[in-house]
Design goal:
Length: about 130
């Protein structure tokens, strides 16, 4: 069985300075504390040795947002609440929750937000799979 499910997230942002201010605050709260940036590419990893997941972004002033959403997993509702406070303090936009989202599963607890470029993100916790 695979220990990793993805290698990296490669996100586009409209304004690099706004994105850096936002993501340097929230990525450590999401489990990506290690700044591994180089040149125009901003990258934050887990800080573990060897191949590991990372979150990166690069500026594209013409970036157009869409309905795609990146959801981060939390082990507990308290973790969702903690990250929600970090996102609020970092200037997250279009904040929703944290709240139970029974339309997904009865125990789905999530916080929805957007970054300064309008990219849709979420942190969620649930006890069982959707299905």
């Amino acid at each position: 069985m695979k220990a990793r499910r993805f290698d990296h997230i490669d996100l586009r942002v409209k304004n690099m300075e706004e994105a850096k201010r936002f993501y340097t605050q929230i990525l450590p709260a999401l489990g990506f504390p290690s700044d591994e940036s180089s040149g125009a590419w901003q990258s934050y990893g887990t800080g573990l040795k060897g191949p590991t997941e990372f979150f990166g972004f690069i500026e594209d002033p013409n970036h157009q947002t869409n309905e795609t959403r990146i959801a981060f997993w939390a082990e507990t509702r308290e973790e969702v609440d903690r990250v929600a406070e970090v996102v609020r303090g970092a200037g997250g936009q279009n904040l929703e929750g944290p709240e139970l989202c029974g339309e997904y599963t009865p125990d789905y607890y999530a916080f929805f937000f957007e970054d300064p470029s309008g990219n849709k993100l979420e942190i969620c916790c649930r006890g069982r799979a959707i299905g």
